[in-house]
Design brief:
Structural class of chain A: alpha/beta
Largest sheet of chain A: 10 strands, mixed
Strand content of chain B: 5-15%
CATH architecture of the largest domain in chain A: 3-Layer(aba) Sandwich
Radius of gyration of chain A: 30 Å
Number of domains of chain A: 2
Strand content of chain A: 25-35%
Oligomer: heterodimer
CATH class of the largest domain in chain A: Alpha Beta
Order of helices and strands of chain B: HEHHEE
Strand order of the largest sheet of chain A: 17-16-15-18-19-14-20-21-22-23
CATH superfamily of the largest domain in chain A: P-loop containing nucleotide triphosphate hydrolases
CATH architecture of one domain in chain B: Orthogonal Bundle
Number of strands of chain B: 3
Distance between the termini of chain A: 21 Å
Shape of chain A: elongated
Number of helices of chain A: 18
Helix content of chain B: 40-55%
CATH class of one domain in chain B: Mainly Alpha
CATH superfamily of one domain in chain B: Winged helix-like DNA-binding domain superfamily/Winged helix DNA-binding domain
Distance between the termini of chain B: 42 Å
CATH topology of one domain in chain B: Arc Repressor Mutant, subunit A
Structural class of chain B: alpha+beta
CATH topology of the largest domain in chain A: Rossmann fold
Radius of gyration of chain B: 15 Å
Helix content of chain A: 25-40%
Shape of chain B: globular
Number of strands of chain A: 23
Number of helices of chain B: 3
Chain lengths: ~475, ~80
């Protein structure tokens, strides 16, 4: 990776994996009022304060004294003091003179760059080149190409501010093709009466970026972008023990795995094959020595589960023999000989009796022994067999009970099938949610809720020949 | 323009360059920025060049004007009203 220049702007450096590549030319594109000039000045100010790198701000329209006064009153940045220390120049100049002096050997701009040992430059704004080019019969694209080459020759990290005149977001200006990077600032409607400012890195050569529209605020310290897909992390006094899912990419997103003693939901749609995810998580639990309580579903029999785990190199029969696994069965289906004691048939039980069964037979079982328990069940089966009202009234209690016993729970559910209201309730009750779905010809997986507050982008799921048989791309 | 009439414009130009010490402009650019006619500005700018307040670089018609920053800058606070001794 190339050397990077930190922008000095909290959040933006994280989005850019450290900053913009050295000597690169980046367009800051945005509509009026999005804070483009503020971002540009902040880049220079923080460059001086944090990295001791001198900078030049070129302003074509705004008077320098207006900028001195605006940023001093809004953010307390004293640019005049920096100029007196030969760390900064705020140059008011017309676009044609600027280009002329940039091209002139030992011109005024070159002299100034050398005089202060300039490392960063901000040009506000290149949109004015259009009028200058039109008047003088120049090609705007060629002009910008020349400018980029001159800036590169001087080894400057450059931000070129560009006014967005075309509000159609799919429109790609020519300038985007010439530069090394594009950061787009936007303002959009939020909750009807508010406006939300977002920052998106549309293009950046030579560095990895965090994709997405990142909300930002203009604070007393300048622009402050928040990383997209990040919610407030749960505050825990003791760091939770992590339980590996067996899927490397998923563990990485969850800082090592799911939290022990927490309830997780896997939201699937009917076309998605979620079985490799389940197989990997359950087999990983057995390998770690956990016990398992599984609520069988209408579509998943004991045989199916047996085959699934066998595929993941787990002999279920041995687990049954060791009484490491118990099943709750809502359907009167046959079980292999010798497995009878591991299965609780609840098909004849009313909801009240089922509750009594959980309380008197199931929960005491989970208290026994030294081993950790992992619970897996299909919530859609409970909804089908016991009704939505039952789930709404009992799920929160069951989840709280499981957490109190330190059990880790994985619940399978199709949010679309249960409806928006129930899904929202379930999402609130759980500690984490993974979602897997098929779109077109690809299957995706995304973490949409997690205790570390980190939501993921949608990852493609790719099949593999060996355990865990899937990986995140 | 009479010499007496040029004094406010001379002050205006001086203040403009003093407040924007790294402004680099041509006569046409200053006409736009200051909102004053070229023919009024030119003699005033020449006078400021002679006085060493601003510098002129390049040859006509591409001459550029910029502030000649003094080596020592003294900041003074001038009160609105004079205090009685």
């Amino acid at each position: 990776m190339q050397k990077q220049i930190t922008t000095g702007i909290d959040g933006l450096d994280t989005i850019l994996s450290g900053g913009i590549p050295a000597k690169s030319t980046v367009i800051i594109d945005g509509a009026p009022g999005t804070g483009k000039t503020t971002l540009g000045v902040q880049f220079l100010y923080e460059g001086i304060m944090q990295e001791d790198e001198s900078g030049i701000l070129i302003t074509f329209e705004e008077f320098p004294d207006q900028i001195y006064s605006d940023v001093k009153s809004s953010f307390g940045w004293d640019l005049r003091k920096m100029e007196e220390a030969d760390k900064l120049r705020v140059v008011g100049v017309s676009p044609d003179i600027f280009m002329d002096q940039m091209m002139e050997p030992e011109g005024l701009m070159e002299q100034m760059i050398k005089e202060i040992g300039c490392k960063r430059i901000v040009i506000d704004s290149i949109s004015l080149f259009r009028y200058f080019a039109e008047a003088d019969g120049f090609d705007e694209r060629r002009l910008l190409y020349q400018l980029r080459n001159i800036l590169r020759k001087f080894g400057l990290a450059s931000l070129l501010i560009q006014e967005r005149s075309n509000l159609d977001i799919s429109h790609v200006p020519d300038s985007y093709f010439i530069v090394d990077g594009v950061i787009r600032l936007s303002v959009r409607k939020h909750l009807d009466v508010f406006r939300k400012r977002t920052l998106e890195v549309v293009k950046m050569r030579g560095t990895r970026i965090i994709e997405g529209e990142h909300t930002y605020r203009i604070t007393e310290r300048g622009l402050y972008p928040m990383i997209a897909a990040q919610t407030v992390a749960e505050h825990k006094k003791v760091k939770a023990e992590k339980v590996s899912t067996g899927i490397h990419g998923l563990d990485r997103l969850l800082d090592g795995g799911v939290d022990r003693g927490a309830v997780y939901m896997l939201d699937t749609n009917s076309r998605a094959n979620y079985m490799p995810v389940i197989g990997s998580i359950l087999s990983e639990r057995f390998r770690a020595g956990d016990n398992l309580l599984a609520v069988l579903s209408s579509t998943q029999t004991l045989d199916d589960l047996n085959r699934l785990l066998y595929h993941h190199h787990i002999e279920l029969e041995e687990m049954v023999r060791e009484q490491q696994i118990h099943f709750i069965e809502h359907y009167r289906r046959s079980v292999p000989a010798g497995w009878e004691n591991s299965v609780f048939y609840v098909d004849q039980l009313s909801n009240e009796d089922y509750n009594q069964f959980l309380k008197n037979q199931c929960y005491p079982l989970l208290h026994e022994g030294e081993k950790e328990w992992f619970v897996y069940y299909d919530l859609n089966t409970i909804i089908t067999e016991r009704g939505t009202d039952y789930v709404l009234s009992s799920f929160a209690k069951e989840a709280a009970f499981a957490r109190s016993l330190g059990m880790t729970v994985l619940v399978l559910c199709n949010f679309k099938e249960v409806g928006e209201q129930v899904a929202s309730f379930l999402e609130r009750t759980t500690n984490g949610v993974f979602k897997t779905w098929v779109d077109g010809s690809n299957q995706y997986l995304q973490v949409t809720k997690a205790s570390n507050g980190q939501l993921s982008e949608p990852y493609l799921l790719e099949s593999m020949k060996e355990h865990p048989f899937i990986r995140l791309i | 323009m009479e010499k007496k009439e040029a004094l406010p414009l001379q002050m205006e130009c001086t203040m403009f360059f003093q407040s924007n010490p790294y402004m680099i402009e041509s006569l046409a650019g200053l006409e736009n920025r200051l909102g004053r006619r070229k023919e009024d500005l030119q003699p005033v700018l020449e006078l400021l060049v002679q006085q060493g307040i601003i510098r002129k670089t390049g040859k006509e018609p591409k001459s550029l004007y910029r502030y000649n920053e003094p080596m020592v800058i003294t900041e003074m606070n001038i009160p609105d009203t004079l205090e009685s001794p």
